[in-house]
Amino acid sequence: MKSKRVPPLDCIRHLFCLEDHLSLMRKKRNSQNPKNAMEREIKAALGEGKPDEIMSSAFKLRLTREDIQTLDNFQWLNDEVINFYMNLLMERGKKENYPSVYAFNTFFYPKLLSEGYRAVKRWTRNVNLFKQHIILVPIHLRSHWTLVVSHAGFLFFLIEELSGQYLQEESWEKRKVKLSLSEWTLHSMKPHEIPQQSNGSDCGVFMCKYADYVCRDKPITFTERDMPYFRKRMVWEIIHQQLL
Q1: What is the DSSP letter of 160?
Q2: d(Cα 98, Cα 115) in Å, to the nearest integer?
Q3: Dist. CA 147–CA 208, nearest whole Å
């Protein structure tokens, strides 16, 4: 039995139809790829739009597009972004197998420094700091973000000085226990102990990721080459109000 010969023009049409079908399948597959979907969300959040558009609202904080755009490359993170991220760390700390975390607001240290303990003692009225595994204090000094970390086991890491007077007064106010700083190991992190930045804009991202790694008890192995990725990741995490 002889096979029926398909005219060349019909073959070409068939090939074009097949290619169109495969192209549509690829587009559909790419659109369903979680990574591609995340990248589109991140790009949209960093793109054009009303500066005052609310992009994420939680923890009594409302982040606008303008706030989110401080996570774009080479931008300085603002207080709102950092405070939101610190709240995400606290939320994760409520989960099983994670250490409990309390993070102070970025406005805490300036208030403590200028007005003393009485001005900030109500900030922790519903929190027992001495039952937290990890305490984070983000600090902005001399146009640079730094971090103080108090870790369970009375290990106190200092990247910038934080007066022990606050802890002593907090201990007496909340527990009626005199706190002796001699019980604490004080350590100022040296440049060779932690990753360093070479530009003037990534310090806020570095600080947030220091906090993230400490709260997961992970060695701090990232470098400044990871900053563009971390910035995008933080955009997605803030919009979705969950850490990856």
Answers
A1: S
A2: 34
A3: 9
Beta strands 134-141 and 101-103, pairing class: parallel
Buried residues in 182-200 as b, exposed as e (16+ CB within 10 A): eeeeeeebeeeeebeeeee
The residue behind tokens 């090939």 is: 15
What is the predicted pLDDT for the residue at 207? 93
Which has the higher per-residue pLDDT, 172 or 148? 148
For helices 203-215 and 227-240, angle between their N-to-C axes, nearest 10 degrees: 70
Return the closest-CA partner of residue 70 out of 56, 61, 81.
81
Find the radius of gyration of the CA atoms of the chain: 25
pLDDT in tens, 163-187: 456 667 766 666 676 766 665 566 6
Per-residue CA distances from 99 to 94, 148, 152 (Å): 8, 17, 9
What CATH number was assigned to the domain covering residues 39-240?
A: 3.40.395.10
Q: Where residue 194 falls among pLDDT bands split at 50, 70, 90?
A: confident
Instruction: Report the distance separating Cα 187 and Cα 152, nearest Å.
Output: 14
User: Residue 20's pLDDT is what?
Assistant: 67
76-86: per-residue pLDDT in tens?
999 999 999 99
Residue 37: its H or E element: helix 34-46
- Beta strand ranges found along the chain (DSSP E): 54-58, 61-64, 101-103, 134-141, 144-151, 155-158, 185-188
